[in-house]
Amino acid sequence: MLIPRPLAVAVLALCFALPGLAQNDAAPTAPRGSIVEDRAARKLIDAGDLRFEAGESDKAVEIWGSVLERYPRSRMRFAAHLKLGGFYLDEQRAFERARGHFEAAADEANPDPDERALALLKSGVCDFEARHYGRCFKTMRAVIEDFPTSGHVNEAYYYIGLGHFKLGHYSRAIESLEKVGTALADDDLRVEKVEAGRRLYVKIDDRDLATLGAGEGVTVTCKAASGDTEQLRCDPVGREVRVALGSLPTALGAPSPDNGRLEVRGGDTVEVLYTDAHTAEMEFDVRRLREVSVIGNGFAQITDGSYRDDLGGVVIGKEAHLQVTDPDGDRGDGADRLRARVEILRAKTAEQIEDEKAALVAAAAADPLAETPEGPEVDRYALRDALDVVLTEAAIGGAAEGAPVHSGVFRAAIPLGLAAAPNLGDDLLGAEPGDLLRLTYIDAVNLSGEPAERRAEAKTVEGNLGDVRVTEADISDQELRLRTQLKTAGALTQIGNHYKDFGIREKADVKYTEALDVCEDITEAAERLGGKVLEETYVQLWRIYFAMEKLDLALAMSSRLQREFPNSEFVDEAILQQAHVARERGDLARAITLYSSLVRLKESPMRGEGQFGVAECYEQMATEARDASAEQLYERAFLAYEKVYEQFPESGRVGEAVAKMANFYYQKRDYARAVDVFENVLADHPDANFLDVILFNYGRCLYRLDRRPQAAAMFDRLIDDFPESPLAGEAKQISSALAKAVGAAAPQ
User: Domains of the chain (ranges plus CATH)?
Assistant: First the structure.
């Protein structure tokens, strides 16, 4: 994924289709610029890519942006938006700015459906990273509904599951995560690879499957060339349908037949056999065979001594720990080996780069047939030392000595010495502080079908890494140094948030304190530099304070941001957090004022959040009221929730707002209208918060309307889908009572 990826999903869909299957109609061609413009824009995007790979990200952004300015009608503008969105998402963590570019790339004018699906997915990732989970759910559901045959559906389900996990909705998280990998791509018939260690997905398309009864399925045989054989049951995807799906986990390892997991090894092949009982040609028991290759995508890492965490720096005078993960390298029961290359590179000076560019231009000018290059590209680094290394497959998970090794993880540790001058050809690796250590591995066999170069890089430093800050490296650009520190603080804050989500408060506080130390170290320099760096420093500080629940400091810092940078793209987020702080302190009147000011920011994507906050405040005021004003406050809350639904349909809060409206109907004993609203929530907003509460109240409304079987079904659904809910116990009691009542009323 272009994004930080904790999970990579490989999908295999084997389709046994009958002839005459209808093809999708081609998408209408959108109005666009000429082919000449497309070619020119493509060259600019490629030039931006080269700049970005060379570490000149600012120049890359400028070039990609020039595509939008110079060729606004070219179809390549969508690719430029994707590039810019990826930069602001991954490099700058400017989620709203990135989201704007992704939304532009997802426009229906884009004739490439895969680009539109990816852009929509990335838009949802921006919401996820910004913790706007409601909006993330809505966007990811749109990916699933609008692009059902896209491979991006897998990631959409993944982020829906992860979002529910963050919110503590564990049952819904599991439900979504279990769907990861079940998406079928348009090119099903051409997919003949499965990634080792991922699930093998089988799709059978046979009109005879429509005759299967409830609970019936079909069985296929999966056999690996290395010896393992497993039976896989495929179940119909609905009633009276011709498609059945099944999946089987794969793993590197020695064959162990019929254990529910297909053991494979690098370079393996898998045969999938299905017996078609009755074909269109009136033949019986025809064997359908599909053979697929076991492939693994490799990746390289420079890690700490435990091989757990990636490092941004390696210490001169100690060992550099290298790791390559590639399932294709696991060929036998012993510890296999593979080769990689390690290089020491030193950044060239600006004068050296200019001299090389001048030489390239002069050489082109001397050749009358050659085109004079515009801004010729040169390598920013010079090779100082290099070493070919052999990495050995490691036994992972405490395997006994002498046992077969099937990890696909290869490791080596090499000493790194101090050397000022280039020293190619010997068996030692030497570097100076500030050099770049690069691990390069050629992944000859991978899912792309083409050999790929896998890289990992780290700075060389003196001393020790300690808090993993490269203090001895010579970073000449002060702004770059400050931005690097801000990224470090952001990463530490994210780690703290993860610990906090898991309830490990002590470790979370440690990470927050480390992040705060980093920010405080650079604040003075950021104030001298000013501009965007200072703005981002304020943003990072307020996020840390808010995470640490130091609300006074968070409020002061967000107010300072708003005062000094009134046009900042982070102002709406600052106002939202100020409103949250006011609400936490019980100052509901001020909270309503702040939420309302956010609603008035016409360009803010958080307006729906602000309107929902207004409604919550009125509801809280009504709950706390002890006089006749409670009824009036409830009415104001109802109208505020209704505005979320009517005025902000794109808000991720719509489902919750509608559910709140239904609860008001329930309180007024207007059960029929409450049931209508509950049905809309369940049908249109499957990711709404408090879905357990919705099911519980839905069941109660149905009971009040004397629809007891349907009421029992709602309570049973709550018990099955939300076993961890505090309402589950009461739902069990009601469900049991309803079951007894129905049984007693049944004719004997």
Answer: 75-177 (1.25.40.10), 206-295 (no CATH), 309-370+378-461 (no CATH), 489-568 (1.25.40), 652-748 (1.25.40.10)
